[in-house]
Amino acid sequence: MNPRTVALLVLGWMMAAFTFPGSSHAATPGAPAGAPARRERHASFAPPAPRAAEVLSAAALARMRAEGRSVLWVHFTDKGIPDAAAFEREIRAAGERVDTKTRARRARETGGAFVPDFYDLPVRSQYVDAVRATGVRVRHVSKWLNAMTVVADEAQARRIAALPYVRVVHPARPSRKVEPVGIGPAQEGVAPEADSEQGSAPAPGTDGTGLTRAVRDLPGPEPAFAALPKPISYGNSLTALTGINVPAAHDSGWSGASVVLAMFDSGFDKNHNTTSLLVKIGERDFVFHDNNTSDEPGQDAPGHWQHGTGCWSVAGGYWSSNLVGPAFNSRFVLAKTEYNPTETPVEEDNWVAAAEWADSLGTDVISSSLAYKDFDGTANDYDYSDLDGYTTVVAQGAIMAARRGIVVATATGNSGGAAGSLWSPSDADSILGVGSVNNVNIISGFSGRGPTADGRIKPDVVAQGEAVWWAIAGSASQVGQANGTSLATPLVAGGAALVREAHPEWSAAQVRSALLSTADKAATPDNNFGYGRINVAAAIYNSSLGAPVAPRPFNLLVPINNGIVDHGPTIFRWRRTTDPQGGALSYRVTLRSIAPQPCCLFTFTTSDTFFSYTGYLGPNRTYEWTVTAIDPQNNERESRDFFRFTTNPTTSVPVPEPPPGVPQVVLRQNRPNPVRSFTQVDFELAGTQGWMPVSLRIYDAAGRLVRTLLQDFVEPIPTQCSVTWDGNDDRGRRASSGIYYYRLEVGEAVESRRLVLLR
After folding, report:
1. What φ, ψ does residue 532 adopt, rounded to 5°?
2. What confidence score (pLDDT) does residue 178 get?
3. pLDDT of residue 74
4. E-assigned strands of 6-48?
């Protein structure tokens, strides 16, 4: 069974159940308003996929008989959900586990609200346990592919294939990473000179305020860091950055702030002068399954982290007068996916596992200077006909990441010269496959070329990949030169981070379209240059999308994140930002109760960077607040942070008297209705400013109380509130199907509506 047949078997049922990212060219210059050509719709329940005629593929048997124990993909027929009602419940529950930043990115990608889908559902734990019980070693489990990888012998593989919910078992494919074509000698960096206007660079390991900019454990709110200033000098990086017009973007204030940029590679030196100042919000080693992406003596080959460290420094390094990357103020996610001593099938599944993990952290851009292909002629390897954008596992993973709103930049490989010399996943259709040029924009002889097997133009874009300066791992102060599409890729990824920062409202497809449509060969693309060398400033300001630029990113200050407020008035402060068009800004502050009951939303607008809130904040409550900057054209930029604080049990602000008169109450119809698992009830209060006790209860058709959602919950007027009901009564028991009523009482005002519960 060849790779393409396996891919079609695996994807066929998915495509029947919901829209899978296929092989159409999703975002090319000239598409209407830069919108994606297709949008993922909500998954619908589908019966299990049929098992393959050959569940244990001949290729898997051949591999195991040659190797004894091999890395295998095990794909399942379904996710173990019996019916449509259970499917809806599981989809909703999976959606509630999605990170806030990821939800916002996904909503932006579809142009509407976040909608959970099949890919958010985990692989059924019973399936994973049954496969593990055969004695195999489990490597990774992929909810995107509804599959897992294991290390198994033939007897174990046959037991796995006999499980009724296993669709197909086939081998993971051999791979090679993109090694640099050449590496120059290392040399010592120079000490940055002080600048009379900006001052000297911050001390290594700090952000200039004494805060260590180190990796933090996730989940949880990240601390606020002062942005690194525009460097005194670009040093050795000047030529490569000028070639893609990054200095002009930096002059406009863009540096990747508020963007999460993931690096997939062989490991990372976090103590080099170019990387020690960068904000690292997460790291994971997908080779040794721990949270250390640095050199691990006894496990890693000497120098294994050079490639990853160097590429990271090219994307976002910050060592003034030496090395500077485009996106030095991004939040970085570090994934170690490569094992240097051998080139085995392990990296394919590591890449997909890393992409799923990066997605869960709210990643906006992936930089992957890795590519996979092997032309040694064995039956188990990919060949050119498989580079059609969906056959290889890494291409499937890359397309999925792109469809979920992540801009993916990946190298085309260094086997160039001939047509069709690209490597995967650069063949995927919705990503940025990156080729290499020299400093005067002549195509590099080694740069991988298109077309793809199905005839699409590749690479998509190019950047300098010859004589690019990068950090030398293991020595804090050494830098050097290297050649390869590995070096061009982080330049493009860093540039994409600046575009995404400037246009937070754009989808991944629109960011890609802006970069392609403003590249220097956009009018005459070909399979050497693609659409040409990118122009970051032009993509921000002059693309065919024609969108104005939102206000620049900014941070919240006080109340500090996870702090305690024990007296009033409550002072809210945030950093001032500016409008790139020079307009006056206003700020909309949003305050929301999230515990013990997520409920009401209160907003106020000011032109200052502080607000004194004299209103009532109930004791023992947790509130979340954020600020949105708004320019004269109503373009909005939300603050980088969502801060939370808790009120003291004995707050000094007394419970106020209700205002006179009856408030204006608008009670909305619950949604969804009918209810199967969860529903949301929205209401609005208006009228005389003040505070009112609010109660919301659920009753059955006979008038019996079923659930109290709010009781004398004092809220400000005006306000907008959302309350959810999980379909359970006050004792936690599931309510039965039927007609119910929800009743809202606000002072003397009473409103009620009907809902239907279906089980």
Report:
1. 105, -170
2. 67
3. 97
4. none
0.85 cut: is pTM over it? no
* Interacting residues of 400 by C-beta distance below 8 A, sequence separation 6+: 21, 119, 144, 355
575 neighbors 557 (Cβ within 8 angstroms): yes
* Spatial contact of 752 and 743, defined as CB atoms under 8 Å apart: yes
Tell me the two tokens of residue 126: 């019973």
Pairing type for strands 323-324 and 187-188 reads: unpaired
Q: Look at residues 744, 741, 740 and name the one whose alpha carbon lies nearest to residue 757.
A: 740
My answer on whether omega of the bond before 663 falls inside 30° of 0, hence cis, is no
pLDDT along the chain (759 residues), means of 10: 54 42 33 33 70 93 91 94 88 85 86 86 95 96 95 97 96 70 78 44 40 43 66 96 96 89 95 95 90 82 88 97 96 87 63 95 93 58 85 92 96 93 94 97 96 97 97 94 96 97 91 97 98 96 82 89 86 91 90 76 85 78 90 84 82 59 86 84 81 89 92 73 86 92 91 92
Report DSSP state, residue 584: -
Burial of 32 per CB tally in 10 Å (0-12, 13-18, 19+): exposed
Q: Are 680 and 722 in contact (CB under 8 A)?
A: yes
Report the SS3 class of residue 482.
strand
> For residue 136, how many other CB atoms are within 10 A of its CB?
21
Report how far apart, in Å, the C-alpha atoms of 686 and of each of 17, 195, 245, 748 are. Answer: 44, 54, 51, 14
Query: What is each CA distance from 438 to 243, 432, 460, 470, in whole angstroms?
Result: 10, 19, 17, 15
Q: Give the whole-angstrom CA distance, residue 240 versus residue 488.
A: 9
d(CA 35, CA 32): 6
Phi, psi of 79 (to 5 degrees): -115, 25
What is d(CA 665, CA 78) in angstroms, rounded to the nearest whole number?
46
Nearest to 207 by CA among 328, 325, 363: 328
Q: Which residues does 217 contact at the CB level (< 8 Å), separation at least 6? A: none
Identify whether the C-beta of residue 396 lies closer than 8 Å to the C-beta of residue 390.
Answer: yes
| Helix, coil or strand: residue 539 | helix
All residues at 6 or more sequence positions from 325 whose CB lies less than 8 Å from its CB, including other chains? 237, 274, 312, 313, 314, 315, 316, 317, 318, 490, 491, 494
Which pair of structure tokens corresponds to residue 7?
Answer: 């891919």
Residue from 435, 495, 439, 434 nearest 467 by CA: 439
Give the pLDDT of residue 92: 84
pLDDT attached to residue 29 = 33
Which contacts qualify for 120-125: CB closer than 8 Å, 24 or more apart?
A: 120/91, 120/94, 120/95, 121/79, 121/81, 121/90, 121/91, 121/94, 122/79, 122/94, 123/76, 123/79, 123/147, 123/148, 124/76, 124/78, 124/79, 124/80, 124/165
- Residue 550: which of 254, 174, 129 has the closest Cα? 254
Dist CA 26 CA 49 (whole Å): 27
For position 177, what pLDDT does the model report? 60
Q: What length is written for the chain? A: 759
- Residue 7 CB neighbours (<10 A): 19
Q: How confident is the model at residue 593, as a pLDDT?
A: 81
Rounded to 5 degrees, φ, ψ at 647 are: -85, 145
Q: How far apart are CA 575 and CA 639, in angstroms?
A: 9
> What pLDDT sits at residue 60?
92
Q: CA–CA separation, 569 vs 559, rounded Å? A: 12
Contact between residue 399 and residue 431 where contact means Cβ atoms under 8 Å apart: yes
In single-letter form, the type of residue at position 153 comes to D
Which pLDDT score, from 0 to 100, does residue 601 have? 65
